[in-house]
Amino acid sequence: MAAGTTVDHLTETYRAHYRSLLGLAALLLDDTASCEDVVQEAFIRVHSARNRVREPEKTLAYLRQTVVNLSRSALRRRILGLKLLSKPMPDMASAEEGAYDLLERDALIKAMRGLQRRQREVLSLRYFADMTEAQVAETLGISLGSVKAYGSRGIAALRVAMEATT
């Protein structure tokens, strides 16, 4: 007799212990299909490595350990899948929203062109270049009070112009 577990011994083990191995997998996993897959895979792996199981009486122990390992792997794959699925999809604007945004932007640009030069400069630097009022004053060479006055008047004029377009 050759060293290792024979195919006949493995077949007998399958007949005698399939249900108990299925029960073991059921304790670790939650659905019948996965349990059956794990037990079948365990028998396939032990069959492929049967020459390494030198003592046939240890075949069942190898099968049990293989069922446990495969069950753990199945659970890890599920957890990873859940982690990947639970990430929210990034919000994407619909075509209508994009068109509406484009119209709003065009109306804003048109309204900005209708402002006085200093108001347009102050608002552009303050809100589009993201500068502080002090930085705008330094850039334009005007006082901080003038920046506040031009900004306030410019926003009021923009509000009137944007309400007229809607």
Helix content: over 70%
Number of helices in the DSSP assignment = 7
DSSP strand count: 0
Structurally, the number of domains stands at 2
CATH architecture of the largest domain: Orthogonal Bundle
User: What's the pLDDT, averaged over the residues?
Assistant: 86
Q: What string gives the helices and strands in order?
A: HHHHHHH
Walk me through what this model shows.
With 166 residues, the chain is mostly helical. The protein has two domains: 7-85, Rna Polymerase Sigma Factor, Chain: A; 95-165, Arc Repressor Mutant, subunit A (Orthogonal Bundle). Helices cover 77% and strands 0% of the residues. The chain has seven helices and no strands. The chain has helices at 7-28, 32-48, 59-85, 95-113, 117-128, 133-140, 144-165. The protein is rod-shaped. The mean pLDDT is 86.
Index terms:
166 residues, mainly alpha, Rna Polymerase Sigma Factor, Chain: A, Arc Repressor Mutant, subunit A, 2 domains, 7 helices, 0% strand, rod-shaped, transcription, RNA_pol_sigma-70_dom
Short description:
The chain is 77% helix and 0% strand. It is mainly α and 166 residues long.
Write the layout of secondary structure elements.
Blueprint: H1 7-28, H2 32-48, H3 59-85, H4 95-113, H5 117-128, H6 133-140, H7 144-165
